[in-house]
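User: quick one
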Amino acid sequence: MLGFLNPWGFLFAIFIPAVILLYLLKQQYQEIRVSSTFLWQKAIQDMEASVPWQKLRKSLLMFLQLVTIALFTLAVARPFLYREGRDSADFIIVLDCSASMQAEDVKPTRFAKAKKEIESFIDGLFPEQRLTLIAAGYQPDVVASRTNDKRILKDRLNKIEVTNGEGSMEQALSLAQALARELGNVEIHVYSDKLYESESPNFKSVVFNGNGKNFAVDLVSWSEIPKGLVVLSRIVNYSDEDTALSVECLANGITLDVKEVIVSAGGNMDVYWTGIPLETLWVEIGILDRDDLISDNRGWTVINRREKNKVLLVSRRNIFLEKAITLRKDVELAKTIYEQAYDITGYSLYIFDGYIPEKLPEDGHIVIFNPQPHNGFVEVGEEFVPGFLRNPANTRYAQLLDFVAYDGFHIARARRIGIPDWGSAVLEDEHGPLLIAGEKGNQRIVMFSFDVHDSDIPLKVDFPILIQNILAWLLPQGAEQNANYYAGQEVEIHTIPGVQKIRVTTPSGKEVSMDPTHSLVTFNGAYEVGVYKVRQDAESGILQEAREKYFTVHIPTRSESDLRPGQAFDNVEYGFRQAVPAVHMRELWKYLAWALLVVILLEWWVYQHGY
Amino acid sequence: MNHSGDPLLDQYFLKKLDGLVLNARAALKGDMGGNRKSRSKGTSIEFSDFREYVVGDDFRRIDWNAYARFERLFVKLFMEEREASITVYVDLSGSMDWGRPNKGRLAKQLAAVFVYIALANLDRVSVMGIRDDVSTYLPYFSGKQGFWKALKFIDELEFGGKTSLSNSIKRYACIKPGGISILITDLFSKDGYQEGLRYLQYQKQEITLVHIMAPWELEPELSGNLRLIDVEDGKAKEIVVTSQVLKAYKKTVDEFLKEVGTFCYTRGINYIPINSAVTVERVVFENLVKFGLVR
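Assistant: Done. Structure below.
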């Protein structure tokens, strides 16, 4: 159907009679007296004989000018073609930005195609129709809210980027539905590679899926055997035919081995790689064959061969504590007596039992048992007999008491300690705190206000649990052992006490500086897949050499790598089923402008050549 | 009619003309040299008459015996030379009084030049103005004293009306067979020019056709929608001037000139095309001399 956006433009048509009038006026010839028309007559006769339509020339020019005006008038009136479906006043478009949208089974990619379709949808909007654009990336993001400004919409649309994550379609759809309920007369259009269905008639799903074939590295892990390192990788074939694949293994970026594996249709294959040097920092497994989704063809694992945590116990003698600490295998416990405990460095954790040195070490975390008065570190008062123990509400350090039944503890005497500004009580009674935890800069400190020998706690099964909880907080294993993340996840980095600088280098070489003033910092930029390097260095002082750790970021292969559509589609040829007319309205003035240009050129040519 | 107010020809220019001789026959026969000289020797024997000397006459022809007797200067006239009768036809149609520089003025100047040269050579001269009929004419005369009368006659010729070249020529009864005819025209003639020229040849005339065209007629500068009005009959022709039309016009002009040239060449007629932008002096000393018409 045809309509006009600017019917007033037809006023330009009054120029049509104007041109005709001008031509009529133009018939008034300029008179020139010549000696004789004899030769002119002859010349014109000759010419008319050779150009039969000479007489038409005037009228041809006039005709072309009339066409020009007609085209211009039409263009100004802004005609458009439209189809059904213009009832809604508002549209909400949800664009899936998950990793699978990177697939190239729909050309150029599913995501680019979807963006193009949305762009033509924007072009087709009527002036009074408004559009809300939601990008379902790592988080749903409303990039444009109820606007009819096509320029802004296209600009915002162009800025949306596909992610390596699994997307947030569920949240984005809930958000869209919530918005729709608020707005009333609204249509939700979902642009994704999966089909979304809804009861609502105003819900339409446009699916971009070319039934692409894809292979993925699903898992990479390592273990240490007496002979060296062995790496296990799992290669998954998300296609409908058995495929032979070339898989390579790289250590620190250098190719070690290439294997040919045959993976059955829809199945997976575990590939083992041996002979990996012990000093390897990270291993990369890559599929060399081409498929429709490239970013999941590589997987990485970081080799964090367990380093022992050095712990120093300064004590007269505390066998309970020694036993409880050495339960953890990665702890290397050193012991010393009070007299020798001065100017000590080089440990990850210092435990002072009944003693506090004049100068506390700064390169490791600290646990203090039974601090003595006048120690220069905390204020210690008189002794008291603790009664009913409780865990104050809202403490940040409740994890220290996980699985610990502290209500069965009996303590003969404790010392009253003023809670320092860096810490808070984890366990207390009405007289004062019994267990304090806190962070002084990036140094973590745990303090008991009593001697364990003055209680029945070491005799209980809860004691080793409590000690292990404390060690887990002070000497975290998580970052070292599980260094694999999915794109978009927050990466926690445990700060080494005394560090001034933390820098994260992304796989593409970008450096991000982090603030090291807290014991745990969060890195929010893990959007790229690959190996990230975390470098912590101290410019001066205790930590002599920089410490480099690695972590890896992957595509969530379980949800993203299978490119095959869940349902069968009617229209497979294009690889997408279109439930929405992509174009509601198409403006025609551009074509008219081109035609206008052609006619004007033609007119100029006719005028120049005198036809 | 004298357009500029200046005399048609000035004294200085006339002086320069003194040495020139009309040489039409010699040019025709291709043997210019001595023919006319030997003829004049022969003719000098047959005395015809005396007439008083006027300034400009050949002083070698002064009869010194008569001077001794009458103390006045007389020149002897001879029979044969009088036989060379020259007719100058001037096209007086409206189209000639046109152009910048004016074709008519150049035509009058040339007519005067031919008359002067003829008289200087003791030839008989007649001037005839032609339009669609014989309009006015000056009968044959000779003797240099007649030049001023002829000049006045020429100067006072009026342009206007249509041209019928052939008709006018045929209607001129006084024409003497065996003479020289000089036709000064732009050839824009209703009844063509060929019949008239053939008639003159039939009258045993040696013909010289001086074809004057104005610069604008050769290279018109026009554009747009025009109504061209013929100054002779007032008829209009509407044209839309484009580069194509101008090209066609130039082609037509070229063909016309070529056609006239070919006609004259095949019939032994001297054809001298002249652009009215050229001064009469240049026409005489370049075109006519170069062509061998005068020497």
